[in-house]
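Minutes, project huddle
Topic: does the predicted pose make sense with cobalt (II) ion bound?
PN asked that the exact inputs be recorded in the minutes so nobody has to dig through chat later. Recorded below.
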Amino acid sequence: MSPLALAQVLCSLPKVDNENLLVGLDTCDDAAVYKLNDSQAVILTLDFFTPVTDDPFTFGQIAAANALSDVYAMGGSPLAALNIACFPDCLSPEILRQIIRGGAEKVQEAGAIIVGGHTIADKEPKYGLSVLGLVHPEKVIANSGAKPGDCLVLTKPLGSGIINTAFKGGLVSEEAYRRCVQVMSYLNKDAGQAMLKVGVSGCTDITGFGFLGHASEMAAASSVTLEIWSDKLPVMDESLELAKMGMVPGGAYRNRDYLEGKVKWSQDIPLEIQDILCDPQTSGGLLIALPENKADRLLEELAQTNKTPYALVGRVIEQKSYLVEVK
Ligand code: CO
Ligand code: CO
Ligand code: CO
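Predicted holo structure (tokens), as shared on screen:
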């Protein structure tokens, strides 16, 4: 079963009827939002995964940046976080200590604090965070807010799944891998703040379901279709060449199968671009929908603060029989 299909199972619980629940399960958004009073709502989210790099400290940083990202995608700021870890009893606890230290450093960079956590013994290490964030109830940015006519901006380059796969086979250059690690461990904080300054319609972050998986969730939640311009996508160095060589993770194929019938491909989209669009991302960027007359301001904000490549990658159109069209 594809991870996307599994997530749909999680979202399939009966709709909760509670006037304080501003964002719940039904839209498959990045996090839940619960209103406390007229000026405060809390954001609740949880994310953890298996190591994406050999270095435990870096893995901790990436896993934490990924978990914090869901708070930024909702327009919020993180307040506190809990560690969640699985760890084999045959490995040195020093490794776990380094993972946790890497995570703590990112949480600190986000301006939040770690207040506890839970660990269990397991065959494979896994690490992540449950994060509590804060947002004004009227400033929540949901994945359901995209409107026809909006522009689409992506704030990190694609291809981390492909680069990580190639790294295991020793096929990526040190420099390209180093930059990929930089992108994965970079917080979506600057992009989130740029979004808040400018005011946007909707947002989601790009992670395990790949660009098209998350784009299709946004389209479905917003009852629109997204038009993606394949020649405008920011991509990581060497990722296209590696995809051509077949260095594509299994998850990309599962994402692609799941998207069958939901995505319309123009005839001439090269296979490696299709792979990039389905490639599961680790701690990817924000996909932001915003009115056309605000797009330049957002791009200017990103130019000043954001330290990863970003681009205007498409637009929102009226709902069609498919969720995303790749041109
Ligand atoms: Co997310
Ligand atoms: Co998430
Ligand atoms: Co959201």
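Observations noted during the meeting:
- The chain has a mean pLDDT of 96.
- The chain has eleven helices and 13 strands.
No decisions taken; revisit at the next huddle.
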